[in-house]
Automatic annotation (TrEMBL):
It comes from Oreotrochilus melanogaster. Residues 36-45 have a biased composition (Basic and acidic residues). One of its GO terms (cellular component) is plasma membrane. InterPro entries: VANGL. This is VANG1 protein.
Amino acid sequence: MSTAMDTESTYSGYSHYSGHSKKAHRQGRDRHKSPRSKDGSRSEKSVTIQTPPAEPLLGNDASRAEEGQDDNWGETTTAITGTSEHSISQEDIARISKDLEDSVGLDCKRYLGLTVAAVLGLLVFLTPIAFILLPQILWRDDLEPCGTVCEGLFISVAFKLLILLIGTWALFFRQPKADLPRVFVFRALLLVLIFLFVFSYWLFYGVRILDSKDTNYQGIVQYAVSLVDALLFIHYLAIVLLELRQLQPMFTVKVVRSTDGESRYYSLGHLSIQRAALVVLENYYKDFTVYNPTLLTASKSRAAKHMAGLKVYNVDGNNASGQSRAMIAAAARRRDSSHNELYYEEADHERRVKKRRARLVVAVEEAFTHIKRLQAEEQQKAPGEMMDPREAAQAIFPSMARALQKYLRTTRQQQYHSMESILQHLSFCITNNMTPKAFLERYLSPGPTLQYDRDRWFSKQWTLVSEEAVTSGLQDGVVFVLKCLDFSLVVNVKKIPFIKLSEEFIDPKSHKFVLRLQSETSV
């Protein structure tokens, strides 16, 4: 336990490695602050997809890395705790108020739809029972006796209602994955169809049975059975429209992240644009590597440095267009050597990454050699030396911490991993007898967004921008954009081409060959 306490005290700065002084924090926030979009196009339609509650993706906080840190950032950085100073403008207040109003509207729309569906479902299940019970309550003495066939229909109605209840629960009562901007057209059509269907049955029942007080009780029960059968057929129709129709791939979509150009391809069936956007987002969180804005700062700073070297002066106040063009051409020739600078920068970065990766691998392998799982008989011999997985992780973490810090700093991944998350992952690997290579898999290469802390890297709100109505189906050439705080996903839809296959039969007896000999051969 003393080793664990020393580990916590010695490497407490690792959990605050992303913190800086207030000045550096403000500079980083200003440098990474994205400019506001000023799109003058009026033909695009923008709607919002609300995902489950979480923090905004990559907000302007102290977790963003600065380029001015040295290699010993784990020991020399200053952690700022307590209260922090923030400034807020009227535009921010208006934007926050608008977001709150939008979220309240989405919640009201969601609960209204659930309420309507629940009331309609309750009406559907109670209607056959009411058809059977009302004659028994209102004119019981006038009814004809119910024979064996009628009693058998009771069992049929009971089991069909049970099957319908289970099918409805499996198809409709699911945890919502997202709040879509518009209603699901097929689901709304099914609700309208069910309402009209039940209303027409009640209308016929009221006119032909309640008003005339029909005494044929077996016919009344048969009428209720026909209603349940029709409801089962509507449930089959719902399965076809909501589940089976979209299974056959009809379109191929290309998803490109606007910042770094990372792209993926997906096959989709007959879906609306808003539901296709939901499928794209679900696949984005598991297929795309986590968005890292610090990887883009090097290219931006290099471009800014070269643009700053271009200066054109007009001495006499004349046009001097020829002289200006000559100066621009000379400056361009001087900057032609910038590719050499880029080449050597990338080569040096790859060399440093490989070197620190090798150090990290060796440090982790040496740290894991100090751990031994005790068997049942060995636990009784040395009870004072035993440690649980958490204590073991804290004991071996100091020997690998510095190498891990430097590697994460070089690869610009330090904002994704805190000391607590690394200790949890290390204790998990120790508990499950995982090798050092399995432990390092998370840190040697960036993983998908799902691998990291949900509250920090999941976007709370996405905006769907499309020139077509979001309830319309996918078509060839449709392009829509999914925007969040720091980047956007551009989705291009292409229809899978029609493929025509022809058949050609080959007779197995036709596979006959002869050996052609020449005088020069050795055969």
